Amino acid sequence: MMRKKFGLLMLSLLMVCTVLSNVAPASAATKKIQVYLDGKVMSFSISPEIKNGVTFVQFRPLFEAFNYTVAYNNAAKRINANNGSTKIQLTVGQKSAYIDGMKTSLSAAPYITKGSTLVPLRFVAEATGYDVKWNQQNKTIHISTGIADSKVKAQVAEFFKKQQTAENERSLAKAMQLIHPDAPYYEEIKEEYRDQFLSKAKVVYSNVNNIEAYGDDIYATVTRTRSYISGPFFWDSVETYEVNLMKMPNGTLRQYDLYYEDYYYAAEDLIGTQVQVPADTEKAIMQTVNNQYKGFNEKNTALLLSSMDPSSLLYEMMQAMTDEGLLNAINFDMSAKFMSVIKYTGNTAILYAEETDKILKFDTESLYYLVKNKEGNWLIYDTVDISSVEDEFKYDVLS
Length: 399
Fold this sequence. Notes:
Layout: H1 2-29, E1 34-37, E2 40-41, E3 49-51, E4 54-58, H2 59-65, E5 69-73, E6 78-82, E7 87-91, E8 96-99, E9 102-105, E10 111-113, E11 116-120, H3 121-128, E12 131-135, E13 140-144, E14 146-147, H4 150-168, H5 172-177, H6 186-196, E15 200-214, E16 217-230, E17 237-247, E18 253-265, H7 279-297, H8 301-306, H9 313-323, E19 334-344, E20 348-357, E21 362-372, E22 378-385
Parallel strand pairs: 1-13
Antiparallel strand pairs: 1-2, 3-4, 4-11, 5-6, 6-7, 7-8, 8-9, 10-11, 12-13, 14-15, 15-16, 16-17, 17-18, 19-20, 20-21, 21-22
């Protein structure tokens, strides 16, 4: 009898274990969805729900956390929310909403449960512009407002410090370690760094601000100042751009993309400067630039190239264009309305010119960097167009 009782007890235990094992997945399936706002868990009186594959969240506490004032019209079952710059309106049972008066479709209609209105999660992203991510495995919702905490700001500052060091050391390996391997311009920037590191420069990254974080995507604006020291000449410049950094699996940041906001040449500050230049030297410098115009106008390739330094990239580019017959396809009538030498060192000079073309009907402002060769001839080494923004869409001969 004892053996039978033991057998029944074991059978009962096995049955209980079987029932419990069947209950466990049901418990996991009903796991409460958690919402995180900038990494901090939010508290709701009504938990987020999933209906027909659509995730719904409680509207009022979420948008109040975004500093919206929420008002409810009970008769119309309409919600109005306003944060001073954005107005949102939606109605229970309707698959549409209004953001600043513009109608937008909802994936599902809002509904009321236990006295609270729940709206599709996707609407949160559309209405606020915030980054919203749903983690199916962990049943979590992560909302990023873009506000970067002190840790992210410090990490961004450290990133640009490393970039500054890599560029000053002219280390291609270190510089490329900071570029995301999937960056759309990866090969282009590698080639650009190779060219850049042929010259010695002082590089300074400063004014890191407007830092925004959206999950693994971080945006910041930064100013880079490059000052020439030695090697192949380049124009001292001050660049301001927005950088898109991405967080790697190991937590480090890599540059994925950048968008120029402003590009400024330091030589522009010299415009209007009166410099002491021997009269015959000034005349020779201006004659070189005039020979360039004449070469363009008369389609005289030899004269055009004779005005340029054979060791310069400008010469190489112009020779390639003339070899392909590109310059012969366009008629020019170029001349300078005004010229002035704004920097002179004895063997180098910078000339500012206000130019016009009567055929193409455009005006430009240009800077020319000229060098004196062993024979004493002045040659154009490089030139940049510094025309104002309203002229930037006009035809540029060197484009």
